[in-house]
Amino acid sequence: MSTREEYTPPASRDGRRRLAEWAAGVAAALLLAGCQVFPERPPVAATYDLGTGERGSLANALAPARVTVSAPAWLQVTAMHYRDVRGDPGRRRTYADNRWAAQPPAMLALVLERALGAGEGGGCRLQVQLDEFEQVFHGGDRSEARLVARFALLPVRGGKPLASAALTVLEPAPTADASGGASAFRAAAGRLADEVAQWLADTDRTLPGGLAGVGHCRR
Q: Which of 23, 42, 129, 137 is most buried, with most CB under 10 Å away?
């Protein structure tokens, strides 16, 4: 008894091979498409703050009862602002993947309260108007934190300031990025606190009767 093998023409064998290769390619394409159905997770934004501040050497009797910090609308957000004076100096920009832990006025108030010992002695109120809080790039890797503030000391009763002043603090950033800007702003906030403390001490010396005088900061 003989067995006869079926003969397959070469053309048919080539067709089957091409069909198998085509099927494998389609399967790979479908697998790749399936992997792309779910988009990649966006990078987590880095968050920075100004710290809590360090208690300075201001005498308790000169410390304000409380500190309030206000700011224009564009600073009442957690976005980190910067400006590049090399290209378009009139344009305010924000970092895409970096932000503040809280609004700059709130962070600055915390630093000033801690540094000045708010609530530990005197009864005056310190009002601060934060006018600018941005990182400024000047060229190459050089940038700085720019903090502009006005402040006034109000008596226990009444709304007429006992004294007022304004200050601009410029602090070089160690690196030309958001992290360097945050580091520079921490230093700038500390310098502002030191300057305000010195201003309170000077006001105490020049104001008749001092800050503890009747009608001033005495509770």
A: 137
Find, among 190, 191, 210, the residue nearest to 200 by Cα.
210
Residue found under tokens 């005056």: 124
> Which of the pair, 124 or 24, is modelled with greater confidence?
124
Which of these CATH numbers, 3.40.50.880, 3.30.420.380, 3.40.50.10610, 3.30.420.10, describes 46-206? 3.40.50.10610
Contact by Cβ (8 Å): 90, 28: no
Give me the pLDDT at residue 57, please. Answer: 87
State if pTM tops 0.85.
no
Q: Is 215 left (phi over 0), alpha (psi -120 to 50) or beta?
A: left
* Cα(50)–Cα(70) distance, integer angstroms: 16
DSSP 8-state symbol, 4: -
